[in-house]
Amino acid sequence: MELTLVGIGTGNPGHLTLQAVEAIRAADILLIPDKGEDKQELADLRRSIAAGCVGKDDARLVTFPMPGRDPGVPDYKRRVQLWHDAIAQAWLDALAPFAGVRKVALLVWGDPALFDSTLRIAERIAKARPLDLKVVPGLTSLQVLAASHAIPLNRLAQPFLVTTGRHLRTHGWPAGIDTLVVMLDGESSFSTLDPAGISIWWGAYVGMEGEILDHGPLSEAGPRITRARAEARARRGWIMDIYLLRREGSGASAP
């Protein structure tokens, strides 16, 4: 079986590359994860993207229920590993009726290589059956956030660090870095920082219909963002957001 992980950007059909369109059209089966009623919009967006490439060929679309993490497992990494095991089994169960299918594609939000575990899950599939794994890169939320705010991700000749909300809460601001991009943050972890000298550029649903943006000094924008985030989640039932934090440093150039 050939399994192609297709990066689809942030839900905007305009984010698809020509390579992604070709991969979707070439697939015999398109796997669509179903994350439940609250996140039905995510499955619908994938179906819409698929329909834009192959028409309303519902026979190609195979939906599978997306397992959730077990909150009863206290160790974070072990909890995630078990979750990935369950997702891999869900893929196998969904494909079981299609033993003769040669080309399968899975539409991956953003890019499969950046803070996404689809490649690790695919490795589990490869242990269960022969697998030819291919990856089609996609636009990431980092790029779309920077484009939406019309800013560069890094200062002149300076590095930046991509991290998660959990790491920011646990370890604080890393030494020697002036710019952080924070992903997978469900708890507004920027609120744990001393806001003095820090600016934030935040976006929810970046690149999608209903995109929400805010930026400014963290002391002022932070409370606004926390409120906007809660309201957006309540309204749509789900949220995907990302933000860039920049700390003023001696001799640093303007963004």
UniProtKB/TrEMBL annotation:
Coiled coil: none annotated. SUPFAM superfamilies: Tetrapyrrole methylase. Its EC number is 2.1.1.152. CDD domains: Precorrin-6A-synthase. One of its GO terms (molecular function) is precorrin-6A synthase (deacetylating) activity. It comes from the Bacteria. Pfam families: TP_methylase (PF00590). This is Precorrin-6A synthase [deacetylating].
